[in-house]
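Write out the 3D structure for:
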Amino acid sequence: MNNRQTALVLEGGAMRGIFTAGVIDVLMENQITFPACVGVSAGAAFGCNIKSNQPGRVLRYNLAYCKDPRYCSFRSLLKTGDMFGADFCYRAIPDELDPFDKETFDQNPMLFYLVATDAETGKAHYQRVDSVDDYCYEWIRASASMPLVSRIVELNGHKYLDGGVADSIPLAFMEQYYPKNIVVLTRPRDYEKKPASLMWLQKRSLKHYPAMLDAVRNRHIMYNRQRDYVFAQEKAGKALVICPEQPLSIGRIEHKAEKIQEAYDLGRQAAERRLDDIKRFIADDH
């Protein structure tokens, strides 16, 4: 389905992003394309597969490696400084174990943006990624590097962490370029984010980055305002929201294959229920 006016916005949520993987697989299988996509954290790490046109890949490698300590474990955190092992997640899997289709990604005209948080300013950085190489992988890693369980990623003389800290749902960013957007959330409609826990540990971890610490401290305020804005735009006919009907039972870090499969299936079901709405929403642009 040719679409030139409606873009795609993917929030993060660590392993809740498996829900998003189910949604985008249904979109790909129904040949629904977008001129642009922006992903945050897991929305970037999993969402990039829509530009490489690889339905099923996110579920496949998560099921295959969810219990592998190299993929995600406290052992990896203690050994490397990253809960999600950088070399395994961003080198071994895409280059060897479950190859990422770099050629298709590079040739697909869809623009792909991701969000990272500048640790020194606490502000969102929006990076367009046009081709796949180590530089691309490092940007995706930066977007998905959660405070406390990830090392800071240095790129172009700047230091970055999880994009969701500064801009969890970058609808306003995408609205600069596209009048209508499909937004995939990983929390139900009635969700309200609470203040961050473990702030004493965050203060210790981010003691050299006061602006980043402030962003973490105030993230719930920013996030709840963004959700209000998303649903207001939906009411105005400028956004279509796909989200779980109930809280997902999957953890931010998940080693149980059945939980991963369940979240993925719920994403597929949510997209399939809204498939006619999605097609009409896009068709109204013409």
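The mean pLDDT is 96.
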